[in-house]
Amino acid sequence: MQTNDTYSIDGQGLAALEARLAEDLAFLCHPGKGWVPPRDGVTDVVIIGAGMCGMVAWLNLTSGGIHNIRVLDRNPEGYEGPWLNYARMQTLRSPKVLTGPAAGHGALTFQAWFRAQFGAEAWDALDKIPRPQWMDYLRWYRRAVGVPVENNVSVDKVEPQGDLLNLTLGSGEQVLCRKLVFATGRDGTGGPNIPGFVDGLDRGFWAHSADDIDFDALRGKRVAVIGVGASAVDNAAEALEHGATEVRHLIRRDTMPTVNKMMGIGSFGFTAGFADLPDEWRWRFMQYSFATQTPSPHGSTLRVSRHPNAFFHFGKATTRVEDIGDEIRIHFADGTSHVCDFLILGTGFVIDPMARTEFGDVAGEILLWRDAYTPPESEQSRDLGNFPYLNPDFTFREKTPGAVPWLRHVYCFNYGSSASLGKVSGDIPGVSEGAAWLARSMASTLYSEDISTHWQAMLNYEQPELDGSEWTASDLPQTSKEKVA
Fold it and tell me: Please, what is the end-to-end C-alpha distance for the chain in angstroms?
C-alpha cells in the first residue's frame, strides 16, 4: 500500500514536483476530452492577459475539453501582470498558505513549489511571499502546465462579424473567435485614476503609481504622495529608499484606515453566494468596503514610517496643483498648501469601460451598476456605480437590449467583475473558484450554441458496445394450461 510519504517533495527539487503534478493531472484525465465542433479559421476562445487569471482560466477551460484557445499578453515573456512592472511592495498581502491559481491541484500551489526547492523548515520560517518570488512561481506555473502564451501581442480592436468576434491585433493580424475573455487584471475595465487637479501639469513633475517611475531621479528631491493605500505607501517607500530628501503622504481622510473589512468575511460561502444576493446586498457589501478603505499592509506601512524623513498628513484633500518654476505647489481644501519637487499619485485605478479602446464607441453601451441600481442616499458611490453590471457568467450586458448583442460573447474576468460576482477574478484567494465558474459557464454556452450539431452526433453514433457474441437467443418454454391453473 502506498503511503503519503511517497509523494513528499520537500527539498527534492522541481523535477520531483513536476513529475507528481503530471501524474496527478493524468489521473484526472487532463486535458479533458475535446467536444467543441471545430470551425474553419475560427478560434473558440481568446484570452487577453496571461497573468494569474488568464493562466488559471486556460487551465480550467482545457480541463473541461475546450482546447482551441489562444492566450495573448502584451508584455514580454516572464513579465505578465503587475508583479515586476508597477507593483512595488516587498511582499504579498495574502497569507502564504492560500492556494491561489492552483485549480484544486496541491502540487500546483505556491507552497508545493517553494517546499520542493527549499524544504519544510524554510517554509515554516517564511512569513510573507516576496513579490518577485511570486512572479518566479507564476513563471514556473506557466511552464509546468504548458500554457501556450503568445507574448508581445496586443488586441487593439474588437468588433462583431456575424455570430463571431473579429479581433485586430497590434501586428494587424485579424483573429476570428467565438468567445473573448478579458483577464486583464486590476485595470482590466478601466485604467489608472488620474485626478483632474493634475490636468495641464507638466509630466516632469508627477507620475501615477502604475507608471514606470525613475526613482533614482528622486534622490535629493522633496516628494509628495497623495493617498495612503497599498500602492501609495509602496511608492513612498521606494522614493525613500532611493534617497528622497523627504516624502510626505497627503491624505484626505482624517484618520488612517486600519481594518480590512473584506478579510473579516472571506469564506467559501461568500465566494459562492455573493453573486446570488439581491442587488441591494451586493452593493451594500462593496460600498462599505470602498468607504472604509482597505488599509496598506502592516509591513508596507512600517517600511515608510521607519524613515525619519517620512511624514503622514491627514485631512489634506488636494484641490489643485500649480507649477511655480522648478517646483510645484499643492493646494488643499483647508486653505493650506505645500511646495515640493515631485508628486506621486497613489490614487489607484478607476473602473471605466469607456477607457477600453478595444470596444470603440460600443463601450458606452455596456450596462453599468449606476444604470441598473439606485442605492439609498447613505450608500452613494460614484466609483462603484461605474462597475459593469454583469451577467452571472461574467459576460457584459447591454444598456439597450438588442443594441449590441455581441457583448454576450465577451467575458469580464478581471477586477471589474467584483461588484457583480465578488472577489473571484483578480484577488489570489478566490481566483481558482472564479476560473472554474467561468469555464463551466462558457462550456454551457458553447454547448447550447452547437446543440443541433451535438444532437446530430448522437443520431449518427453507431459504435456498438456489443457484437452479438455475448449472448444466445433461446425459445421460451410453453407452460401447460393445467399447470397455470
Answer: 61
Residues whose CB falls within 8 Å of the CB of residue 453, separated by 6 or more in sequence, listed in order? 37
Q: How confident is the model at residue 90 (pLDDT cuts 50, 70, 90)?
A: very high
Residue 47 has pLDDT above 60, yes or no: yes
**Residue 348 is which amino acid?**
G
- Check residue 335 and give left, alpha or beta (phi > 0: left; psi -120 to 50: alpha): left
Q: Average pLDDT of 255-264?
A: 89
- Do the beta carbons of residue 435 and residue 105 sit within 8 Å? no
> How much is the pTM?
0.92
Residue 421: Cβ within 10 Å count: 25
As a whole number of angstroms, the distance between CA 182 and CA 41 comes to: 21
Q: Give, as one character, the DSSP assignment of residue 368.
A: B
The backbone region for 265, taken as left when phi is positive above 0, alpha when psi lies in -120 to 50, beta otherwise, is alpha
Question: Which residue has cell 527534492?
Answer: 12
Pairing state of beta strands 328-332 and 318-323? antiparallel
Task: Say if residue 39's pLDDT is above 80.
Answer: yes
